[in-house]
Amino acid sequence: MDFLASFTGLDLPTWAWIVVLTSGAGVGIAKTAVPGSGILVVVLMAMALPSRMSVGVLLPMLIFGDIFAVGKYWKHTDRRQLFTLLPFAFLGLGAGYLILRHVTNEQLKPIIGAVVLLMLGVHQISRIVKNKRIASGKSLPSRTSPFLTVLFGFFAGMGTGMANSSGPVMSLYLLIVGLPKLPFIATTAWFFFTMNLLKVPLFINLGLINVQSLKVNLLALPSIAAGAILGYWVVRRISQERFNQIVLALAFVAALRLMF
Fold this sequence. Notes:
By secondary structure, the chain is mainly alpha-helical.
């Protein structure tokens, strides 16, 4: 680990370096197979790195993962849902930026934990809705009220702007809309690709993306590609519901660790 510390200027314990070096795989899988499961990576990176730094390190990783998802699934995108959500997400992004601007590392860590727990609660609701839909044999209507569009769009923007953690918000919204699996993944990918690109100048302005954070990114890039390729396999062959259960349980434990 001496080379890693020398290269990045970070003195981290062995377990933290393992998280940093392998977290990209979680990003790749989240982007190409299990939207929303990236919450686990958000929490683990916030535990392994200083909280503010973890947010800045994750952004280029997420963008790299977005490229794999967009490149694979772009033709399935539901453009109407995408363009309806984005204006309200832009407003939420501004709110998340203002929060990041005024908090310290120690203040941000429990905030990330609380946001993750909130998002996990949202995701749990989405699972209940989905199970009821399956049990009844009925599909949810492919529309939502303007209020829900504004609400979900705003909080998706704020969550991604503050802590890269709004995947479950998008998952619940698109579940209510009733999108099939591939349009679901494709629309999510384009939404976050757009939002993440907009966040780059904001994060540079806040000092969250810098030379040191980019060096950490270089170490994680190979695992992102590996995770994305694995995600292509996962989405076709493994039960997404079962995989979600494992990831969300681990994320819950990690979020509690961040808060307490």
